[in-house]
Amino acid sequence: MVQAQGLLASLGCLFPQTSPTTLALLLLGGFIWIFRRAQKRGSGIGELPLPVSHSTYIQCNILTFAKPGAEFLWGHERVVYSHEPGVSYRRWIRQLGLTFRIKAAFGARDVLVLSDRDGIHHILSKRIYDYPHSNVVRPRIARFLGKGLGWVEGASEHRRMKRIVAPSLTAENIRDMSSDIKDTLFKVIHDLESELKNSNEPHITANMLEWAGKMTLNAVGRVAFLLDLEGGKSEGATKILAAKAPHSRPATTFGGFLTLMLLRRFSFMNYLPIPALKAQASVREAINNGVMKEIVRRSHAMPIDGKDLLSRLLKADITPDELYAQISTFIISGHETTALTLAYSIYELSRHQDCQDKLRSELRDFYGEPTYDDLQTRLPYLDAVLKETLRLYPALPYMERTVVENDVIPLRQPVNSPEGHIMNSVHVKPGQTVIIPIIAIQRLDSVWKDPDTFRPERWLEQLPPSDDLPSGWSNLLAFSDGPRTCIGIRLAIYNYKTMISAMIQHFRFLDTGAQISLKISSAIQPWVIGKEDLGPHVPVYVEALE
Ligand code: HEM
Asked: 3-class SS at 223?
C-alpha cells in the first residue's frame, strides 16, 4: 500500500496536471493490459510455432513469399494435401514438437495442429461438445451419410440419438447375430471360389476393396436392417457398390484441394449446386432409391420387438427424415471403413508372406470354430494384425473440429514458443479450427520403431510407454475416443476378425507388385500408382488353398 502511494506520488511529480484518481486508473489499466498481454503471449495460438522451412518439397514460386514455408494463397494447406496423408504433419512434428499452428488457405484463421496426448484427451473425452465438426466437415457428413448420429451436434441431441441406436450394437446383440454374419460372409467367399474355379489359371487378380466391400455391406445390412443383399449381388447392393466411384475424387488432386479450401473459407458454398459436392451424395442417393424403399416397405409388416437397429429406430419417436438419415448413416459408415481396413490388411499380408503364414497357423491351430468371445481374446496374432492395420491405415486419418467456447487446452509436452516462452497449455477462442492428425500420430518416429513398416509383432512385444500413446481403443485413435467414439466399434472388430479369418483359411494372397499411394476423400483411399484410372483399388493375386 505504502509502495503504491509512493509510486503515485512519483507519477504525480511527472504529471503535475493529472489528478491522483486518474493516475491510479491509468496505472490499473496499464497493469491489466500488461498482464493480459503476458497471458496471451504465453498461451494463445498466435504464440505457437509455425513451420518455416520445406525446402525439400515446396518449390520456390512467386506465391511463396508471405511467410517462409507458407504460400501466399494456400498457406501451408496445399503442402499438406499434395502429399500422402500425414507426411507433412510428421515432418513438422519433428521440427516443432507435438503442438503447432499452420497458415490456412485464403487468409483464413491459422489452424491449430494438435498431436499432444493430454490435449487430445481433453478435447475428445472431456469437452467434445464444445468442439463440433468444422464447417467443412459437418456439411460433408450431411452429404455423404445424411443428418444422422455422425452429423448431430450438441450434448442433448447427440445423447438422445445415441440412446436410440446404442443398444442394437452391444456385444450381446452381435453375439446373437454372429451366425447371420457368417452366413452373409460365406456367400461372398463362395463367389470368389467360383471365380477361381472358372478361371484356368492357378490364381486370379482380385480387387480386394471390391470383395471386402461386398462382405461388409452384406454384414451391416443383415445385422442392422435384416436385409438379404445376396452376397452383394442384389440390385440394391449393386447400386450402392457402383455409386462409390464418383465420390472418391481425392483432395490430393488440385480440383479436390481447391474445393476443400474454398469451402473452408466460404462455407456458404456448401449449399451451392456444385457438381463435385452433389457427387458426394451418390451412395446415400443409391440407398434412398434402392434398399431404403425395401426397408420401409418391410417395416410396415414386421413386428418391432427385435433387438436389431431397425426395430429400435421404428420404435423410437423420430421423424421419417431422421429414420432415413440414420439408415443411410449406418449402411455407409458401417461398411466402407471396415472394408478399407480389411483390404489394407490383405494388401499388407500379400506383401508379408511370413505374417500371412503366422496368421493362418494361429487360426488352423485353434481348436473348433472361434466364438465371438474367442475372437476378442484368444487369437493374439489376429488381434495384432488388426491393430497394426488400424495404426498404419486409420480409415479416417484426420479429425477437424472447431471451438465454440473459450477454452484452455492442457499439454503434456510443453511447447517452446519462437519468442522463448514455455507453453504448458493453449488458449483457444470460438471459431478456432483444430486438426488432430491421427495418421501422423500413429506413425510418429519418436514413438514407434520403423513406423511405416507393417509389423504386427510389435503389438505382442513391449509397447512404447503409455504416456506416449493416445488413450483411445488399444492406444490408437482409429476409432476416436470419448463420448463420440465410433459406435460401431464392436461390430467392426467382429466383422473384420470373422472375415479375415475366413479369407486367410480359404485363400492365399500374393503380391502383384502394385504400389499403393494413399489419398484422402471421405476416408483414406488406396490408389494404384500408374493406374489411377481404376480409382480406389487394391489388387492382389488370389490362390485357392486345399
Ligand atoms: C474399422 C472400421 C471403423 C473405423 C476405423 C471407424 C472409425 C470411426 C471414427 C474415427 C469415428 C469418429 C468420427 C468423428 O468424430 O469425426 C467414427 C464414428 C462413427 N462410426 Fe465408425 N468406424 C468403423 C466402423 C463402423 C461401423 C461398423 C459402424 C456401424 C455399424 C460405424 C458407425 C459409426 C457412427 C454412426 C459414428 C458416429 C458416432 C457419433 O458421432 O456418436 N463405424 N467411426
From this structure: helix
Mean pLDDT of the chain: 87
Query: Tens digit of pLDDT for each residue in 43-60?
Result: 579 999 999 854 434 444
Question: CB burial class (10 A; 0-12, 13-18, 19+) of residue 462?
Answer: exposed
Query: How remote is the C-alpha of 490 from its chain's centroid?
Result: 17
What is the distance in A from the centroid of ligand 1 to the CA of 266?
28
> What confidence category does residue 42 fall into, taking pLDDT thresholds of 50, 70 and 90?
very low
Atom of ligand 1 nearest to the CA of 162: 41
Nearest atom within ligand 1 for CA of residue 492: 27
355 annotated as ligand-binding: no
* ipTM confidence score: 0.99
pLDDT of residue 157: 94
pLDDT per position as a tens digit, 502-512: 999 999 999 99
Cell numbers standing for residue 306: 427385435
Q: Ligand 1, from 216, 218, 333, 524: best to mutate by most atoms within 8 Å of Cβ?
A: 333
C-alpha distances in Å from residue 52, one per residue of 64, 328, 513: 11, 43, 37
Burial environment of residue 241 by CB neighbours within 10 A (0 to 12, 13 to 18, 19 or more): buried
The residues that bridge with 518 in the sheet, in sequence order, are: 526
